[in-house]
Request: fold
Amino acid sequence: MEPIETDLLVIGAGPGGYVCAIRAGQLGVSTVIVERNRPGGTCLNVGCIPSKALIHVAEQFHIARLQARDGGALGISVSDPRIDLAAAVDWKDGIVSRLNSGVAGLLKKAGVKSIQGEARFIDGKTVMIRSEMGEQRLTARRIVIATGSRPVELPDLPFGGAILSSTQALALTAVPRTLAVVGGGYIGLEIGMAFAKLGAKVTIVEAEARILPQYDTDLTKPVAERLKELGVRVMTGARAGGHAKGRLNVETGGGSERIAAEKVLVTVGRTPGFDGLGLDELSLAMSGPFLRIDEQCRTSMRDVFAIGDVTGEPMLAHRAMAQGEMVAAIAAGRPGGWDKACIPAICFTDPEIVTAGLDPEAARAAGHAVRTASFPFRANGRAMTLGAETGFVRVVAREDNHLILGLQAVGAGMAELAAAFSALIEMGARLEDVAETIHAHPTQGEALQEAALAALGHPLHI
Ligand code: FAD
Ligand code: NAD
Reply:
């Protein structure tokens, strides 16, 4: 096939890569994007979107089952709800397909050339693209590595058969009777809780002393309580061994146990997706298993950039997108570097956890004298009308000038507060800015204003 020359080559069309390519195209940079699978990457095809679709289905089914069981606390009666997971997966796949076409269309609209195939480095300016059509050589002035990540596999629990990665769990067409989830982090809890709501008997096996160890215990306590209500068993300080005859071997401080597990979902983190990329040809500097980058996402080789999950934690779609947008601007000759005040994170558990900026401990560790205050949803009218009184909003601010350093919340529907949280931190808001802003009533967002008022010493509704 004819060799291609371009200004910018983006390898991988996940959220990092496709945003980078779209923005570069918009800025007039001649851009090619190469993707070996479908556009949208992990996030769109087997990550963010499918998992949130499954969580929604599970929540709907769970509510219906609660109404059937409790005789309808809201005056709604439902009898014998059933779940057809195959139909739900079809619905989810339909959303994914629409988004696949959407991304392909956006790339085209921006004037980006999309190639389906696997890219392998020859040198820092050249890749070979292998596809069903054959091999094609591509030379680029600048190259962006956006090849994402894949799930970590445990030696005793290789993927296949009853041992599932998140990708396989999101494609199940029947709810397993028993499910062991190894790793109580983001994915394990989001998907594990969803399957518990769909009717599986779920056990979480977490190596650390508690679930979601990346969050403080105030934030995770409501999630731990909900797991208990759902009948999910949580084994902490626990390590999974082999799986045989529908049972998983689990080692804890107290000895070993064989727990019932028709399926085992392994979610113990993700590792960079370098397979087939020929990265050895470049000898790039690494930071642990990830590519080392500077504040412009440059690797140690001139004009080779890296964005998204290949650059390490936090492995989040919106971080990858922001990096992609920045690199596109740099490729178009604009000045710029990473100057974001925060990267919000949301754990779509029940209840949802959202964090932006520093939590109280991190703020103190960074040398700040802080004041911090929370406002509980049990004192929020809107939360009561939603039957969602669990949780709180917390603010962390500097003691001296009241600059907001961090905002956190746990509660139903909290994901939607992430936009406000990051905007406030990005804009350098102070407690008074939030306290004196009119927050519409009745909304859960009023808890944010009340937390700021509480930090100033005069909450109104508690
Ligand atoms: P990816 O999305 O992994 O895309 C990389 C692309 O590169 C892939 O399409 C791959 O096929 C392609 N590729 C790899 N090698 C080559 C090659 N040699 N040639 C051509 N193409 C190649 N993040 C959130 O922010 N919110 C969430 O709610 C969320 N939920 C998640 C749920 C699950 C179950 C999982 C697994 C992840 C979730 N994430 C979430 C994380 C999010 O999916 C990733 O952070 C994000 O997809 C990273 O984007 P990326 O562009 O770096 O890489
Ligand atoms: P994670 O790092 O969130 O959680 C992994 C968990 O597994 C940790 O709690 C860890 O202590 C535990 N663990 C590690 N080895 C273990 C072992 N041998 N036995 C038992 N437990 C073990 O990783 P993840 O859940 O796989 O998610 C990967 C990445 O995907 C995350 O870093 C996150 O950035 C991203 N993600 C984000 C979202 C979101 O934004 N809502 C959702 C899903 C995934």
